[in-house]
From TrEMBL:
Domain UmuC: 2-188
Keyword DNA damage applies: yes
Alphabetized InterPro entries for the sequence: DNA/RNA_pol_sf (IPR043502), DNA_pol_Y-fam_little_finger (IPR017961), DNA_polymerase-Y (IPR050116), DUF4113 (IPR025188), Rev_trsase/Diguanyl_cyclase (IPR043128), UmuC (IPR001126)
Listed name of the protein: Y-family DNA polymerase
Keywords per UniProt: DNA damage, SOS mutagenesis, SOS response
Species the sequence originates in: Faecalibacter macacae
Biological processes, Gene Ontology terms: DNA repair; error-prone translesion synthesis; SOS response
Lineage: Bacteria, Pseudomonadati, Bacteroidota, Flavobacteriia, Flavobacteriales
Keyword Calcium in annotation: no
A GO MF term: damaged DNA binding
PROSITE patterns: UMUC
Length: 422
DNA sequence: GGACCTTCGTCGCAACTT
DNA sequence: AGTAAAGTTGCGACGAAG
């Protein structure tokens, strides 16, 4: 049996931990560059603020309703997430951390929903008391059904106390008929539109389609989904694996038509990818660079990406930066105003089993240098040691007008308690 | 030797997720 | 002035090899 534990509007809940006056208030957290809304408190949802709402379009609504606004503070959220996952780990080793705010747990051997609901309740309590984040739990025989159960738990907090089990045929059918097709895990915008056109409006309708039809008109993914929805578990827990791609991509604060600016960004992105590679002890064999103009604007559009094969597997910031620049030079065109760029590394291999290349290899001093740089940056707590071509003042330039403090990860920003309150 | 078929790896892209 | 970032997977096209 699977449990899906999901933190309620996670980023907002993280902000609320350190600022209790935010409870019962409409709160939103914005994406990088303060671009759009990526987390909303229940009260904010009630105001009709959709997920992904562009900040500038909703600014007046926020003002009118006194919505509390935060720039995203990923260091804080990652730290809180780790604390939540540590608690989950105490309950079972069979756990899949699915995203920053949700995990699948598998309870083997017993299908006693009554007991597992009690455990789920305990987990919820411990996370709420220990970390300060509210969660919801969905219980079901398959992962896809656990997703739906979780959604039901979230939707009816008063009646269900944040826990719902799909533990009988009646409840399974009822749940499938309840959930709209576009809200089913794995059904995105495109598929939903096609299915709606076929008058498939909920998960139950979907399960009435024949296997052959689904396989022919859609794909193996949808066939697997049908089985999951019928209660046959085909999706298993996945282990924590090293990433197969690593990306660092950002929008710029303004449109940019200066090659040197874009180049500096690309070097920084490449160096950040290298850092992530070193963290998981991997090398990359391929590096891809992309640039694009602002697709929201009606100016002349240009977007390109290029993939370069590295002569040897590497995780050196210097090497990756060098090839990133090479790639950028191939695709950069004068006369366009660029809004976004990124570096993605792939073809990832284990750093310990580096293949010797007969013709070219990296300067062996890179390894030591990177180790030193990582060590220093770790000590400082943020990336301060950079390559010569990077902009040292760059951290200033992302728009983050509503940033909260790093309460848990930076010693200088610990929360202060006023002892004179009483 | 050439035509044909199959298999396999790679690449670009689309679609999906949070 | 302004609309996120990061990741996985599947699939079709294509070319090399057998």
């Amino acid at each position: 049996m699977y449990a899906l534990i999901d933190c309620n509007n996670f980023y907002v809940s993280c902000e609320r931990i350190f600022n209790p006056t935010l409870s019962n208030q409409a709160v939103v957290v914005l994406s990088n560059n303060d671009g759009c809304v990526i987390s909303r408190s229940e009260e904010a949802k009630q105001l009709g603020i959709p997920m992904g709402a562009p900040f500038f379009q909703y600014k007046s609504l926020f003002q009118k309703n006194n919505v509390k606004i935060f720039s995203s503070n990923y260091a804080l959220y990652a730290d809180i997430s780790e604390r939540v996952m540590n608690i989950l780990n105490k309950y079972t080793p069979d756990i899949e951390v699915y995203s920053i705010d949700e995990s699948f747990l598998k309870f083997n051997g017993y299908d006693d929903f009554f007991n597992i609901e009690k455990i789920a309740h305990q987990i919820k309590q411990e996370i709420l008391k220990g970390v300060g984040v509210p969660t919801c739990v969905g219980l079901a025989p398959t992962k896809a059904l656990a997703k739906i159960a979780n959604r039901i738990a979230k939707k009816f907090p008063k009646q269900l106390n944040g826990i719902y089990s799909i533990d009988s045929e009646e409840k399974r059918i009822k749940a499938l008929k309840w959930i709209a097709i576009e809200d089913v895990w794995g059904i995105g915008r495109r598929l939903a539109a096609r299915l709606r056109f076929l008058n498939i409006n909920n998960a139950y309708d979907f399960t009435q389609l024949s296997d052959q039809y689904i396989r022919k008109e859609f794909s193996v993914v949808e066939l697997r989904l049908k089985k999951e929805l019928l209660g046959e578990s085909v999706l298993k827990l996945e282990d924590i694996k090293n990433k197969k791609n690593i990306a660092t991509t950002r929008s710029f604060e303004h449109d940019e038509n200066d090659f040197e600016f874009v180049k500096e960004r690309v070097v920084t992105f490449a160096s950040s990818c290298a850092e992530k590679l070193r963290k998981q002890n991997s090398n990359a064999n391929l590096i891809s660079v992309f640039i694009q103009t602002n697709p929201q604007k009606e100016t002349l559009q240009y977007r390109r990406n290029v993939v370069l094969k590295l002569p040897f597997a590497s995780n050196s910031s210097i090497t990756l930066a060098k090839y990133a620049i090479k790639g950028l030079e191939q695709i950069y065109k004068e006369g366009f105003a660029y809004k976004r760029a990124g570096v993605i590394v792939s073809g990832i291999t284990d750093a310990n089993q580096k293949q010797l290349n007969l013709f070219s290899d990296e300067d062996s001093r890179h390894q030591e240098l990177m180790k030193t740089i990582d060590g220093l940056n770790r000590k400082i707590g943020e990336t301060k040691i950079k390559l010569g071509s990077q902009d040292l003042e760059r951290t200033w330039k992302m728009r983050q007008e509503h940033l909260s403090k790093n309460y848990t990860t930076n010693i200088n920003q610990l929360i202060e308690i006023d002892l004179n309150l009483a």
